[in-house]
Every structure is written in C-alpha cells, then in structure tokens.
Design brief:
This protein has about 170 residues and is an alpha+beta fold. It has a domain of about 90 residues: SH3 type barrels, CATH 2.30.30.830. Helix content is about 15%, strand content about 25%. The protein is built from 3 helices and 7 strands; from the N terminus they run αααβββββββ. It has a 4-stranded antiparallel β-sheet with strand order 4-5-6-7, with no helix packed on it. It has a 3-stranded antiparallel β-sheet with strand order 1-2-3, with no helix packed on it. The termini are far apart.
Length: about 170
C-alpha cells in the first residue's frame, strides 16, 4: 500500500468518527455549570481582642502556679482531710509513678513490699505505711500487688479518696 493511500484511508476513518452522534453529550457538558454559582456566607463579625492584665491586687490566683492544698493556711480543712501534722515518711517524697514494686517478703505474719525508688534505693513497706505525693497509705500487700488509698483535694477544698495499685515487676 502506498503512503498516499494509507493517509487517505486514515483521513476517511477519522472523518467518519466526527458525526453528530454524541452532540447532545457535548452540549450537556458545555452548559452543565452555566447556571451554577457558589454562594459563600460573609465572615462573622470579629470582636476586637481585649487583653487582660493579670495583677496580684485582683485577688485572683496565679494561673501559672500549681496550687498545693494546705489546710493550715486556708482556714478550712475540707471534708475527709488527711492528717497533715503527722511526720512524713521517706517514700512520700516520690511521685507514685516513679516507684516500682520489685519484691515481696513475708515476716512474722506480715507481708512486706520491696519498693525501688527512681534513684535505685530499696524500701520495705507494709500496710499502714505512707507512700507517694498524695498522702497515699498502703492498704494491703500481696505477692503480686500493693493497694494504696490516696487523698486528693478538689477545687472546692474537699478531700476524696482514690485507689491506686502497684503491680509486681517481673
């Protein structure tokens, strides 16, 4: 086949595909978005920023200071207040999360927990001892866990109990 014939044949095939068969679809696509206009609501009115200057004379508590409950200074103890006048035990200087139960001893009918501090020092604790920063008292000691009752103060000044458990690390 000569190149001229191939060109002519290709031209005739392409001309046959250009009919009016899909003209309705072309018109639809062309005019589909003509009537549509997006509507965007206007932005809301912006109130001007009013800065607040914190002043110690306002009587408001400092928002950046952690409030520590101290019933002796507040003039009110609140409900269920722990004994704040008792001598503190060594493990009350550590957050409960930093202490680990690493062992169990049973001596003279009493179960003792071996507690490891974050500094690596070992302590022997039994039911009745105090532990943690939240006036926690050891309730029970078993081979696998130690149950603790903590006292936490709410924003009103009342105290509530919270149960916590240290599990034996194997």
């Amino acid at each position: 086949m000569k190149p001229v014939h191939a060109f002519l044949l290709t031209f005739l095939l392409l001309a046959g595909c250009g009919g009016e068969e899909f003209q309705d679809l072309r018109d639809f696509v062309k005019n589909a978005g003509a009537d549509m206009r997006g509507k965007v609501d206007p932005p809301p009115d912006m109130k001007p920023y009013e800065p607040f200057t914190y002043d110690n004379d306002t009587g408001l508590p400092d928002p950046f200071k952690q409030r520590k409950a101290d019933a002796r200074n507040s003039g009110r103890g609140g409900l269920n207040q722990p004994n704040l006048d008792r001598p503190k035990e060594e493990l009350e200087d550590y957050p409960l999360e930093s202490l680990k139960l690493v062992g169990y001893l049973y001596q003279k009918g009493v179960g003792h927990a071996l507690i490891k501090s974050s500094e690596g020092k070992l302590y022997r604790v039994k039911a009745g001892n105090y532990i943690g920063l939240n006036y926690g008292q050891v309730v029970s000691v078993t081979e696998n866990e130690m149950k603790i009752r903590e006292m936490v103060q709410d924003s009103v000044g009342d105290w509530s109990e919270r149960e916590n458990t240290l599990l034996l690390i194997e």
